[in-house]
Structure formats: C-alpha cells, structure tokens
Write a structure and sequence with these properties.
Blueprint (H helix, E strand, L loop, with lengths): L4 H6 L4 E2 L16 H19 L7 E2 L1
Parallel strand pairs: 1-2
Amino acid sequence: MSTITTISESVGANRIVPTIAIPYPVGNPNLSKVVEEDLREKLVRRAITALGTEVEETTYF
C-alpha cells in the first residue's frame, strides 16, 4: 500500500496498492464514519488480494 506509487516502483515493489493521501493513507477524515469505514475495508481487501496474486512484474491493484 503506497501513497507515492512512483517510489514503490523505483524500489522494485512487485505489488502496488495505491492509497488516498500522505497524511491519511487508508482513510479520509472528510467522509462520514460509515463511508470512511467502507473505503478502508475496500483498500485492505485490495491489499489482501494483491498478496494472494502471483505476479511477474510490477502490478497495480
């Protein structure tokens, strides 16, 4: 999970899950609590999927 995906690429990460913003990588305090929780859950599920997916080169999820 990365807010600055170009850095992830430059260090050779093979799975990259883009996140929201530097101060709040997996959330957004401007959203309602329910909407933010849904956003967080989707990001974490995406990251779990990324970990379980075989890749041969840098892949964005």
